[in-house]
Amino acid sequence: MVRVAVAAVLVALVLLAGPLAAVVQRSFFEAERGALERTALAATVAVGPEFSAGDAVELPRPRPGGRLGVYDLAVRLRAGTGGPSGDPVTRRAVGGKVTRGSSGDDLVVAVPVVSAEQVIGVVRASVPARTVWNRVLWAWALLLAVTLLALATAVLVARRQARSLSAPVEALSRTATEIADGDLGARAGPCGIAELDQLARTQNDMVERLTHLLRRERDFSANASHQLRTPLTGLQLGLEAAQKLPPGRDLRPAVREALERVRHLEETIAEVLRLARSGSGEEQPVPREPLDRVLDRARARWHGEFAAAGRRLEFRSSPGSEPFDVAGRTTAQILDVLLDNALRHGRGTAAVAMRETAGAVAVDVADEGTLALAPGAVFTRGSTTGPGSGIGLAMARELAEAAGGRLSLRSPAPTTFTLLLPGPGD
Asked: Is the pLDDT of residue 382 over 70?
């Protein structure tokens, strides 16, 4: 940028300074000749009509460093200073015209002296050309100084502009390097240059989308690991128990239980995938089924777990409640998270209660424990007070929101979570 700016200014200065130098030279010489002519004209006034008869002439002072003389028609010096005989410029002025020219190293102007419409003499004014050249050279030096000053100013302005443009580009480069090194929180700031600001916004949007995709991938892995751990453990224990049965025992109950757990595993995987795709336009409609059936399957899955831990699990519903269709797989996954949380972190009897609200149904999952976390951090991913990963409740809330519902903490003591599910038309 500096080279381009300096080259452009240099070309402009050369194109301007060259003709300007020529104009300065010409104007200085023309001004000097004009001054010589005025001096000579002023001297003609001092030459009287008796000049041709030999009358003496008193001439004014010549130009500084110059000479001023009066010549007769024979081109001989009669008064003043100059050569004893006239030069070609003086001889041409005898014809009655003001003549300008050069004689040797001098600038010469000759003005005829007219009396009674007759030329009676010639006034010659001259000055050394070097005095004019000295002034021309001083003017050229000043012009060169101005040119160099303009060039230096152009360099300074170009360097400043280059810094003002390169600094935002370097900042974008540093931000891109930080992102490449793994800092996905790095963002490019505005600089006031519209094009670079647009580039920064584009880069920030790209990083936002990349961060969102990476977060979805990471959350999918964590959600899948969290949700598949318990069903896989149950399936493994069931199969190991069936393997230890004595020969001849009917294995069909164990097979049915294993198939049910496999089906639940398939639903878990499908629901985790659906959550990962939520907001991307790839979601598939979730099959709906009666809430009673979803609660029955949850009772079957978790009754043995609570019994093995020496705790009770109760399911309650409001009297006279009507069948209510919900997103079955989503509701089952949320119930699994809440019951697993009650089993691991709660105490006493755990209760699942269903109650109807205006156009929706609420499912309360409570135990007799006290919430150890701050209520504001309950649904924050990674927040936990025990050996868990702190993923379950955050994922359960995401599942509820993806299905159009809402999961909230109703009471920290006794710990109660409420899942609000919309109706089929909501």
From this structure: no
Distances (CA, A) of 160 to 131, 157, 165: 44, 5, 9
Residue 228 pLDDT grade (very low, low, confident, very high; cuts 50, 70, 90): low
The pTM score is 0.47
pLDDT, averaged across the chain: 81
